[in-house]
Amino acid sequence: MPENAHVYDYVVVGGGTAGSVIASRLTEDPGVTVAVIEGGPSDIDRPDVLTLRRWLGLLGGDLDYDYPTTPQPRGNSHIRHSRARVLGGCSSHNTLISFKPLPGDWDEWAEAGAEGWDAASMDPYFDRLRNNIVAVDEKDRNAIARDFVEAAQDALGVPRVEGFNKKPFHEGVGFFDLAYHPEDNKRSSASVAYLHPHIEAGDRPNLTILLESWAYRLELAGTRATGVHVRTKDGEEILVRAGREVLVCAGAVDTPRLLMHSGIGPKRDLEALGIPVVHDLPGVGENLLDHPESVIVWETDGPIPENSAMDSDAGLFLRRDPESPGPDLMFHFYQIPFTDNPERLGYEKPEYGVSMTPNIPKPRSRGRLYLTSADPAVKPALDFRYFTDEDDYDGNTLVDGIKIARRIAETEPLRHWLKREVCPGPRITSDEELSAYARSVAHTVYHPAGTCRMGAEADELAVVDPELRVRGLTGIRIADASVFPTMPAVNPMVGVLMVGEKAAELLVRKPAPGGDA
């Protein structure tokens, strides 16, 4: 094999949500070569992946890295964090609920030291997205979901929203915007929107996608990243070299994991595991964020109409605190009984049912991701420290959420669908009981973020600067949810797509002279 067989201008680690965007944008220049290292297979000709409504069947399957959570003293210790092992990443695995981050979300980043990431600067990137983002189609608007929307309006006095991305909002109830094609329920994931057209047309000879290839260590020459060590599906170990830059887009779990196994991270932790320290960067793995939520389930009086886009097509946002810059309580409305965690406590799944899931848009608890072994094959530890914030804001938000969910359930036209409350059950009424239930059955909506957060030069725990460059190193940037300084109040996928668009622009606008970042 020629010595330069694995040399490209840019090496993108992770063909997921941001990585797909970056690879597509960079290869618009035919003079630029890009290799994408993706741990999973292609999603092309995979109806189990491409059909949006089949998303639940992907959780815990062979396309899921399936990360456990460490014991949680005040929360559910049995949460599994799905991370997708397939081209398109989590946009090939999730429900594709698509919210442009609210202005306050971006401005909060800028205030945290991410200069140039304020709302005014970021808003144009939304219009560049290639995904087909549309409101849930009329034919997919299930009758009980329609009645949930009407009942929430009447019970809470919130406005009905048609198109959550049309303008910023503080409160509202309505059907979500999704990145999908309603005519056939096909995903408009990052891979479908940004990579498939070029794979199928064969019009990007400068784009190489290495599938089922796992990046386990970065190659560094001093403080410069020069490539990535990769294990192929056949077990061969190769070095993929980057002439210009390495872009790490492996997500909020695997990006810090890769850095730490490459000797980039908290010196004390790495030394304790016998990992040679290349660059002491204490913020790697810190600031682990998520959107935890709980669940309240009702049995319905018979089956529910079958039409739906993905069984959680409508939702509600509330602002309980008028001082809050945006919503501080959110609900998904599931047209299915979502009882995986309550069943562990002895609750039984009804044959027919629906669920509301009170969610914390701006959680105050912060966790940490860390290694437990020097072996890159060993999964890292994810300690989200759910519900450990000092004032118990997170736990109290879920208590409020269950009370509000009950108000909606008592309001027509939703009320006549519901036979009984299954869990927590009508006997659970005190704040203490509701909190204990809500925390013990809490689950994730798979939004880990923040573990390589962006910040100002003076911020010692910032991992990347506002141009996404890893502090103290050259030739390497990070672009995925790990760079989030704080959690957006809305589902973060569109935010990750926009990070990808901005990252590509930074690279195109400011090419690295002589290869330096």
**% residues in beta strands:** 15-25%
- By DSSP, the count of extended strands is 25
Spans of at least 5 consecutive residues whose pLDDT stays below 50 are 511-517
User: What characteristic shape results from the CA principal axes?
Assistant: globular
Terminal Cα span: 29 Å
Helix content: 10-25%
- How many strands, which pairing sense, and closed or not: the largest β-sheet? 7 strands, mixed
- Output the number of helix runs: 13
Instruction: Work out the radius of gyration.
Output: 22 Å
Helix/strand/pairing category: alpha+beta
pLDDT averaged residue by residue: 96
What does this structure look like?
- Belongs to the GMC oxidoreductase family.
- Pfam families: GMC_oxred_C, GMC_oxred_N.
- It contains 13 helices and 25 strands.
- It is α+β, with helices and mostly antiparallel strands.
- The strands form 7 sheets. Strands 1, 2, 9, 10, 11, 12 and 25 form a 7-stranded mixed β-sheet that branches.
- The model is unreliable at 511-517 (pLDDT under 50).
What is the element layout, followed by pairings?
Blueprint: E1 7-13, H1 17-26, E2 34-37, H2 47-50, E3 67-68, E4 80-81, H3 103-111, H4 119-128, E5 133-135, H5 143-156, E6 172-175, E7 177-181, E8 186-187, H6 190-194, H7 196-201, E9 207-210, E10 214-221, E11 224-231, E12 237-248, H8 251-261, E13 264-265, H9 267-272, E14 279-280, E15 286-288, E16 292-293, E17 296-300, E18 314-318, E19 329-334, H10 340-344, E20 353-359, E21 367-370, E22 381-383, H11 393-409, E23 418-423, H12 431-440, E24 443-444, E25 476-478, H13 493-509
Parallel strand pairs: 1-2, 1-12, 2-9, 12-25, 13-14
Antiparallel strand pairs: 3-4, 5-7, 6-18, 7-8, 10-11, 11-12, 15-21, 16-24, 17-20, 17-23, 18-19, 19-20, 21-22
Helix pairs in contact: 1-13, 3-4, 4-13, 5-11, 11-12
InterPro entries: FAD/NAD-bd_sf, GMC_OxRdtase, GMC_OxRdtase_N, GMC_OxRtase_C
Family: Belongs to the GMC oxidoreductase family.
Organism: Streptomyces pathocidini
